[in-house]
Amino acid sequence: MQCVSIIYLVVLCCFIGDVNYYYYSEPGHDQLYELGRSFQNNKYINPSTVEYWYFGYETWREKNSIPRPGNESGFSSALRLFLNTSDGHRYQSDVKFVNGSNVIMATKLIARHWKMNNTDEQVNALVSVRDTVDSVVLRPEMPFAYAPVYVNWEANLVIRKELLRNLGLAMLCVFLVTLLLIANVWTSLFVLTCVILTLVNTAGMMHFWGLTIDVATTIILILAIGLAVDYSAHIGHAFMVPNATATTRNDRTILTLHTIGTAVWNGGFSTFLAFVLLSTLGSYIFSTFFKVLFLVVVFGLFHGLCFLPVVLSLIGPAPYSHMSETTNSKIMPGSAIELNDGIKQTAGFHAESFDARYYNRADSHEKAVGTVSSNGVSIEDRELGARKTPTALADSDTTNFTTVVMV
Length: 407
What we know:
Layout: E1 11-16, H1 31-41, E2 51-52, H2 53-63, H3 72-83, E3 95-97, E4 104-112, H4 119-134, E5 144-146, H5 150-182, H6 185-208, H7 215-240, H8 249-275, H9 284-315, E6 336-339, E7 344-346, E8 358-362, E9 365-369, E10 383-386, E11 401-405
Antiparallel strand pairs: 1-4, 1-5, 2-4, 3-4, 6-7, 6-11, 8-9, 9-10
Helix pairs in contact: 4-5, 5-6, 5-7, 6-7, 6-9, 7-8, 7-9, 8-9
């Protein structure tokens, strides 16, 4: 039972196994007739191409005034007689008997689809044929429809669901990993947005490059998420690192591009060099691999080096607070304190943590007083002992600390 295709039309076969053909041909439960009519009424099937042995058998029986058989054996005998006539000879390959007996083992119906212009029509046609077959129940899993191209159509049907599901899971993983490593919700969301936009742009350009969503492109798109996140994640992380010379969003963005932008660009360019030779191969898999990865690198670099910096310069979050220079600092005896005039003096006191910005002279005794507003940690007042006040501090009772250098 082999289907033969014709130009432009996809051939399908509907198989019926070992069922009581006589019972399903009787009035009132004529499922054999309903099966043929359902295929003729299917909008994805050319009704003039439906070749069904049962229609030919009923036409032959009525034309020759042959009475309806009264049992299953009579039905099989009449059907065999019909197949040996000139009217039924064309259906001989559609009916299979058991070892030359009158017991029907299986039959088939042949039909042809209209020409399909795109993947969506193919998937809809496959679903429609299955619904048509399921509407006629002869026994469990009977009948069933098959065509060689249904293997590819089935893959397209599954890919439609699998691609969206896998991309969604991959995006969730990207967000969780970036949140763990960058440790900022807004920056992680910005990185995720860049990844999504990169894939959207890639999928859009695939259409103009003659690529469709199939098994190969689906796998490559999912793998490409790892490349797309790389370009944006480095920029986002570098933006979060505090720096005393960059306090505004715009300054931090410029500093980020200055420190990590070149490395990100070199990473994208080296990735391109790794697969550029695939463009010279004629294989569909290799050429598709090159096209998709090329688009991912181009759009990934664009969103990482152009789009994300602009977003961060406008609405970027504040830098990490726990990486401030003076946070959790300890001034040990012998620590050098750099004053605002650049002069370093030796401190003769110890504090577990400090926030003092003022140094006071009281007679011949020196004492640390007050708090520094930089990190809000108060300093414990402590008598430092009788020591000659440094000359640099003699002219003023208070001097602002700017930097603490541990020695």
